[in-house]
Specification:
Layout: H1 4-16, E1 23-25, E2 31-32, E3 39-42, H2 46-53, H3 57-65, E4 69-72, H4 75-86, H5 103-116, H6 139-150, H7 154-161, H8 178-192, E5 200-204, H9 210-219, E6 222-227, H10 230-243, E7 249-253, E8 264-270, H11 281-291, E9 292-305, H12 318-324, H13 333-342, E10 346-352, H14 354-370, H15 372-378, H16 381-399, E11 403-411
Parallel strand pairs: 1-3, 5-6, 5-8, 6-7, 8-9
Antiparallel strand pairs: 1-2, 3-4, 9-11, 10-11
Helix pairs in contact: 1-5, 2-3, 2-5, 4-16, 8-9, 11-13, 14-16, 15-16
């Protein structure tokens, strides 16, 4: 087809009801749309078949993972340009297979079908999560979801995360490195928990053992870390042995719901609650409350989303659910706080650090892009593309305040009312 890009741009504008915000390049080399910015490349007509069959985010994601869509230029700028279509329209992408009354839309849909080529669409990429068993957030299904995301090779995670091997929002200062910022985040959590030598710390969703090592090495805490990922546990145990900390740290492959050896002086849950799910979040809060001694502290570090006008209408992000964090759910900050209070906690401090996560994600993307060929060898082309897209899109979402991340410091305050919290736990900038 001659000048496929112009035809695609015209069709897209008809269907979207407005001008295309990015430039297009089609499989025949033609281009259309505003110049001077990043270019969305449609390498193969199969991408159109995927998007017609699964309109919206999932169809786009499948085409991206398969390498049928690509970007030339600034990926962040392109994602920001597309955000009004993908994330700020309230999920109202119209299905091209639905009956529509507008004759112009019907004509555009028919033209797109002709352009897309023969049906049916290609099979989903191999990296898509399939074959889930059990009810959502059952122990069996949670283990499958965690394995899908984390058991993809520790070498790949080292490439992306860097030497710190911390897979959560760092805590940045001017001029610091990623490793500095991750160390500062771990230390911030340890100080909020008021860790003392000999304290028992439970690290829920312990990852590759970074918080456990920091708490034991720097504060003399005795740590139990739990994870559902065998690859993470293997890595963490070797790291702990290399540090000479095996007498202070135990790493278990265990569901947090099966931990029964409390009480603990403190609990850290860093980037884990997003896996819990709305229907299980009260159980999560109750379980952690029951594992703490009176006066014990919980530091819950968790990504949040903006509240919906109708919370019952909230849906899990299709791309994230299929390719990144299966069954992962985000809650509004207020819902998390209320659930912690309902479980009996006294919430003493909430710190919002969303800008820090945008900075962290941009560093992870830079690590991935700097060693792209090795990343592909360690996983697959599709997996590397998933990570590049999800981390870059997440960075834009944090920057635009579509999602946030917060640290909740909660205390199992005893009946005496003595929380053990300092009168002025934080130091704010002086007025200038």
């Amino acid at each position: 087809m001659a000048d496929a890009a112009s035809r695609l741009a015209t069709l897209a504008e008809e269907l979207l009801g407005g001008p295309l915000p990015v430039r297009l390049r089609a499989w025949d080399g033609s281009e259309a749309g505003p110049a001077g910015g990043p270019v969305l490349i449609v390498r193969d007509r199969r991408a159109l078949r995927r998007m017609i069959w699964k309109p919206g985010e999932l169809g786009l994601a499948r085409a991206w993972v398969a390498g049928e869509l690509d970007v030339e230029g600034d990926l962040y700028a392109l994602l920001d340009g597309l955000s009004g279509l993908l994330w700020e329209r309230g999920g109202e992408t119209r299905s091209l297979l639905d009956s529509v009354r507008d004759p112009k839309l019907r004509a555009a849909a028919r033209a797109l079908l002709r352009t897309a080529g023969p049906f049916p669409p290609p099979k989903p990429p191999a990296e898509e999560m399939r074959g889930r068993s059990g009810s959502r957030h059952s122990k069996r299904r949670d283990k499958q979801a965690i394995s899908h995301h984390y058991d993809v090779g520790n070498d790949f995670y080292e490439l992306v995360l860097g030497p710190s091997m911390v897979y959560s929002c760092a805590y940045w200062a001017e001029g610091g490195t990623l490793e500095d910022a991750q160390r500062d985040k771990l230390d911030l959590i340890a100080r909020k928990l008021n860790l003392q030598e000999g304290d028992r710390l439970l690290d829920v969703g312990c990852g590759w053992g970074s918080m456990a090592v920091h708490a034991a090495r720097e504060y003399g805490a005795r740590v139990v870390g739990v994870t559902l990922s065998r690859e993470q546990a293997t890595y963490a145990r070797k790291r702990i042995a290399d540090e000479g900390l095996t007498d202070l740290i135990e790493i278990r492959v265990q569901d947090y719901r099966d931990v029964d050896d409390g009480p603990y002086d403190a609990i850290s849950s860093i980037g884990m609650a997003e896996h819990v799910g709305a229907v299980k979040y009260r159980e999560y809060a109750d379980t952690l409350y029951g594992l703490l001694k009176p006066g014990g502290r919980l530091l819950n570090h968790q990504i949040s989303r903006r509240p919906e006008p109708d919370e019952e209408a909230y849906e899990i992000d299709a791309f994230i659910d299929a390719y990144v964090f299966p069954d992962g759910e985000l809650s509004p900050m207020g819902s998390t706080l209320t659930t912690l209070e309902d479980a009996g906690f006294e919430v003493r401090d909430v710190e919002a650090i969303r800008e820090h996560y945008a900075l962290t994600l941009r560093r992870w993307v830079a690590n991935l892009e700097a060693d792209w060929d090795r990343a592909v060898r360690l996983t697959s082309p599709g997996r590397a593309r998933i990570w590049r897209l999800y981390m870059a899109a997440s960075a834009v979402s944090f920057e635009r305040n579509r999602i946030g991340v917060n640290q909740f410091l909660a205390v199992k305050t005893p009946v005496s009312g003595v929380s053990g919290t300092a009168l002025r736990p934080r130091v704010w900038n002086e007025k200038v």
